[in-house]
Structure prediction request, 124 residues.
Amino acid sequence: MELKVKIYLTDEGGEKFMGIGVIWLLEEIERAGSLRKAAINLGISYTKSYAMLSKAEENLAFPLIERRKGGSSHDGAILTEDAKKFIKLYWDFQSRAKERVSEEYEDFRKSYAALFKEDVNGSV
Prediction:
């Protein structure tokens, strides 16, 4: 048995606006230099990637990307400094949160080992 934890942020209405998918998108924008290329590389539509960024930017106090126009493709994007900081903070937060949840899960599993098919050492 294994614990899976998904962490995301929601707005006041409970709508998800930030999770690992947005982080992956931002990291791919940093590598690819454009939202369109990042979307293609991640296998998602440009429309979906644009919507993900827009929703995140609506709920954060800063822009995530700076759009650049020019060149033959007329597109391009770079991450803002705030976005770069946010990515690092998000990874750190997610890591610490998952570690704490894992610790709590282990305590839970040990306390209620008789309810699980496997023993507390992980064997069946």
Remarks:
- The mean pLDDT is 88.
